[in-house]
């Protein structure tokens, strides 16, 4: 499994943070040394892990040079987290010096030896923060909701990926498209699955065999500072995320898993 993985989609509400935190927690549960990096100014990854993001040292402080990356990392029961908050929303204007695309990569290289995997959560935009994540990563996971609007704008993602490959990171690849909030009984979900396969072909990737089934536990878990795996380990989404990790590690199991 790749060391540096970014979870990305310029659309909001497709489950990027849920996917990121679930993978972080699943890896942590299996004894892996894992770091989650929040590049979204909304700070959802840190908040979902139970952190007080408004009173934390964050990735913004690291980029500003007022704190080291080691100082900003917070250990949690779910895995280590490098949090973010609303101050990072100024990144597009504030960080404009040459080489700004390498800010994250340069910082992560300082602590990469401490971790087996680093999972990066990105904002719902294709901006300098997203480019930083792509430059620092080995591979991408693209979550989608099973809705037609979730499929729009894929050409923009492809353009950004190709730009990063051309100028910064030629080895960047897309591991797959992940369908979140999936209900196999709904006709629309099955239709979106077919469309997703075409999008995957354009991205030279696949749709993951594992789909993340819909459940209220996904929405409830962040309010308790937990991932869906720690909050409801026997729920369908928790089982699906464990199955996804098996698929990423090259040991896929039949989906959906039996409870």
How does this model look, in words?
By secondary structure, this protein is of the alpha/beta class. It is 40% helix and 12% strand. The chain contains twelve helices and six strands. Strands 3-2-4-1-5-6 form a six-stranded parallel beta sheet, with helices on both faces. Strand 5 (139-144), helix 8 and strand 6 (173-179) form a beta-alpha-beta unit. The longest helix has 16 residues, at 187-202. The protein is globular.
Helices and strands in order, then pairings?
Elements: E1 4-7, H1 16-29, E2 34-38, H2 44-48, H3 59-64, H4 69-72, E3 80-82, H5 91-94, H6 103-111, E4 117-121, H7 128-136, E5 139-144, H8 154-167, E6 173-179, H9 187-202, H10 216-220, H11 228-231, H12 236-248
Parallel strand pairs: 1-4, 1-5, 2-3, 2-4, 5-6
Helix pairs in contact: 1-12, 6-7
Write a concise keyword list for the protein shown above.
259 residues; six-stranded parallel beta sheet; 6 strands
Global outline: globular
Main beta sheet = 6 strands, parallel
Low-confidence stretches: none
Give the class from helix and strand content and strand pairing.
alpha/beta
- SSE string, helix = H, strand = E? EHEHHHEHHEHEHEHHHH
Query: Which strands sit side by side, in order, in the main sheet?
Result: 3-2-4-1-5-6
Counting DSSP E segments of at least 2 residues, the number of strands comes to 6
Q: Give the helix level as a range of percent.
A: 25-40%
Enumerate how many helices there are, as a single number.
Answer: 12
- N- and C-termini, Cα separation: 26 Å
The Cα radius of gyration reads 17 Å
Strand coverage percent:
5-15%
Give the averaged pLDDT, no decimals.
Answer: 94
